[in-house]
Design goal:
By secondary structure, the chain is α+β, with helices and mostly antiparallel strands. It folds into 2 domains: 114 residues, no CATH class; 197 residues, no CATH class. It has 9 helices and 9 strands. Strands 1-2-3-4-9-8-5-7-6 form a 9-stranded antiparallel β-sheet. α1 packs antiparallel against α3. It is globular, with a radius of gyration of 25 Å. The N terminus is likely disordered.
Length: 330
């Protein structure tokens, strides 16, 4: 009897674990880091888009229906597992659990991908008709390495956006880099180095040098290339490194550095810049870009509004530097 009782409890634990996974599939994986008031404007615009796009509502209803089906299926699986153990058909519950896990993974990936493609693509097109969005694609690691922001051991990228800004070609995506650590017992763990938005812009004019604006990480760069900027508030947040001090000081005017400080104060986001010849690299510590809950339009609008605020902030930074480089023809 004791063995049968334990056998009955085992599938219960498995099914409960699966239910927890299913009920948590719609939760975001990264806490918002941009200030809420900044994204409220984009929340309202997103609500307008959601209200005027019947296709989104139809897809959301389909998603909820299928999700409810899988939750009911999990309960049915629990009941079937208990019954099978009571009549000594011990192998059947394990088979059902494996089939159920496979179907759940397929469902979650497909449904989320479909909704992302419809919702986010339409919102981004409304924001800027020249932009193209691909949820499952990312920026290649070789492009990220060009900027030489940091070393890492593991790389992932998705939420790819490409288009033109200020007549310059650009591409951006969410990037997540991690560093590997192995202890004396051989156990391996990973810690995040960077997680946020990364963009590359092909400039019309060349800087003809290397310029790095980073968040107070002087040890990671050549101290001989460190320069000071006549802006105390700017230097409290950023360090500047360059192989051409004269050109850099011509580019980093009080107006440029003040805009960077204002952006930080308004959004709470760190922005790091790298200019190498005719390429401008930008990254912002935003966490996940497009990752949100499909349960209702208000939550969708709030989370998409955050993502659009990040996108808008990135564009402002890109525009700022593009205009300065073109204006001074450095």
């Amino acid at each position: 009897m004791a063995g049968m009782f334990i056998g009955m409890l085992f599938p219960l634990f498995i099914v409960i674990f699966m239910i927890i996974i299913i009920f948590s599939t719609s939760k975001g994986r990264t806490k918002m880091k941009i200030k809420e008031e900044v994204s409220q404007k984009f929340e309202r615009e997103t609500l307008d888009i959601l209200d005027t796009t019947p296709e989104i509502d139809e897809k959301r209803r389909e998603y909820k229906t299928r999700r409810l089906f899988y939750r009911l299926l999990s309960l049915a699986l629990f009941a079937a597992s208990i019954y099978c153990f009571m009549i000594h058909l011990f192998f059947i519950p394990f088979l059902l659990i494996i089939v159920f896990m496979v179907l759940t993974i397929i469902f979650s990936k497909k449904e989320n991908s479909d909704l992302f493609d419809i919702v986010v693509a339409k919102v981004i097109k409304k924001y800027n008709s020249d932009l193209n969005y691909i949820h499952t694609q990312g920026i290649d690691s070789s492009i990220y390495r060009e900027a030489k922001f940091e070393s890492y051991d593991r790389y992932h990228s998705d939420d790819y956006i490409m288009g033109k800004i200020n007549n310059c070609n650009f591409e951006m995506a969410e990037v997540h880099t991690e560093r590997q650590h192995t202890d004396k017992d051989g156990h391996t763990t990973y810690t995040t180095v960077f997680h946020g938005a990364f963009a590359k812009v092909e400039l019309n004019n060349s800087f003809d040098g290397v310029l790095s604006i980073v968040n107070n990480r002087i040890k990671l760069f050549n101290r001989d290339q460190y320069i000071t900027i006549d802006n105390e508030a700017f230097e409290k947040i950023y360090d500047v490194f360059t192989d051409d001090k004269i050109k850099t000081l011509r580019l980093l005017t009080p107006d440029v550095t003040t805009k960077m400080i204002d952006m930080y104060n308004e959004t709470g986001l760190y922005c790091e810049i790298k200019i190498v010849g005719k390429y401008l690299y930008i990254r912002l510590y935003t966490g996940a870009l497009f990752n949100f809950n499909f349960s209702n339009r208000e939550k969708e609008a709030k989370q998409i509004g955050y993502s659009l605020a990040v996108l808008d902030t990135t564009f402002k930074v890109m525009n700022n530097f593009i205009e300065e480089i073109e204006r001074f023809d450095v």
